[in-house]
Amino acid sequence: MSDKIKVGDYLIVQRQKYMKLAKFNNLNTTVQLGKDQIEMKLAENHPYYTTFQLIPKQERGRRQFTLDALSTPSEIRNLKELLIKESGSDNRNITDDRQSQSLSSEEILKLREDCESSSEVIGKLVESSKSFMTKTKYSQEKYLKRKEKKYFEYITIRRPTIRILCDIYWRLDPEKLLGVRFDTLSQIVSYSGVCSVGNYLLYESGTNGLLPAAMLNSIGAETEAKLVHLHPGNVAQKQALMAMDFPAEQQGRCLSVNIYSVLRHYYQQKEATNGTEVAEGEVKEATNGSEAATVEEVKIAETNVEEPEIAITDGTKKRKLEDGADNNESVAEGEPNAKQVKLDKEKQSWEIENESAASTMEGKFDSLVIVAKEHPYSILKALLPFVKPSRPVVIFSTSREILTECYVDMKTEASVTYLRLSSNWTRQLQVLPDRTHPDVTMSGNSGYLLTGYTVG
Predict the structure, then answer these.
(1) What's the angle, vertex CA 243, arms to CA 425 and CA 166, rounded to 5?
(2) Which is nearest to 210 in space by CA: 231, 224, 191?
(3) What digits encode the pLDDT tens for the residues 88-143?
(4) pTM for the full model?
(5) Coil, strand or helix at 417
(6) FRET pair for 354, CA 20 to 30 Å: which of 48, 108, 219, 437?
(7) Residue 40 pLDDT
(8) Main-chain dihedrals φ then ψ at residue 15, nearest 5 degrees
(9) Carries keyword Nucleus (predicted)?
(10) Burial 85-107 (b: 16+ CB within 10 A, else e)
């Protein structure tokens, strides 16, 4: 992992408290921050956490900027020390009549074009304000903070972390994370006991790759542990996983496979080696004789599952395998069809991943984590036989009623003990001198966790 910014990296572009995830695809990459378009080519080969000044390009009607690296962040001027010289005792005599600023909108736009830095622009605005000197010190700081947010000319490029990625996704849309906030994510990782030893099983149905990235980050780089990441779709969401830029060896320990495909492969392989009757007996024994988890029902469920879609390189469209087609047979006459050869190669990749995941499932796992949009109980019953005794089980849902149903069913079957249903709620505080209080706007409940340990 390089300490310098290079083409192909995912970057966190930060301007004050605002952060954005962007990929540095090539030297022509630009990042949109509000109405500002920033060219990233001059950031290449600079160390991470470098602060850059935005240099405007001389193009009228467009707010485009290039980057100029600062040798030290202390070059950023402190406006509070420069502009706050005297303050009023209170704001009772200040009237908001829209007449306190003597500069017009056209003059401010021209001022922004003529001045070399945002500090000069804000300084001119303060000089032209009739009420700035009569405001209290706190009001003056708020005024400067608003102007800094609008005219701030510095950005910092940071390396992606799990905390930053979670905050960015949560701010954009909590539903893209299935409602998993950072405090909830930390509890999921903690309860599951993910570490550098063992194998771990995860099912999630769409968190932009944040859950597998967090668990793989806890596993570490120099270990023999594995993570089997199950998902319901044809392709797993891996944006956060790719943004973390794990080493290739660590990245290879995460096997992302379709849950229906790998379960079908596992049971078909088991029937081929041990016979149907032995497989049925083992599954019944593992599920304590539960009638709902017999092999017959597994077979019925699997027969209704469609084959994963296979990408055909002829164009950008995806097609499903035709019913009854035998993809292992070669063409009877003439040379093999080029499309068929490509199709076989593409199919072979996910088949290899299924085989690797199925072999890991034979040895069973040290924990099970389920974060799903669907009702988790049927998924739990399908995956619970693959977890070792006395190992943690963690289920997340935004609905308390769903987890309550799971709690009652699991209590009845006695397959999991020490069941606990908990909710997560965090309060963010503004901590400033003489102004410490909870944030005015903050998120509420971040879902519920059902935790327990398997019974041997």
Answers:
(1) 10
(2) 231
(3) 777 777 777 777 887 887 887 777 777 767 777 887 888 888 777 888 888 888 88
(4) 0.76
(5) strand
(6) 219
(7) 92
(8) -125, 110
(9) yes
(10) eeebeeeeebeeeeeeeeeeeee
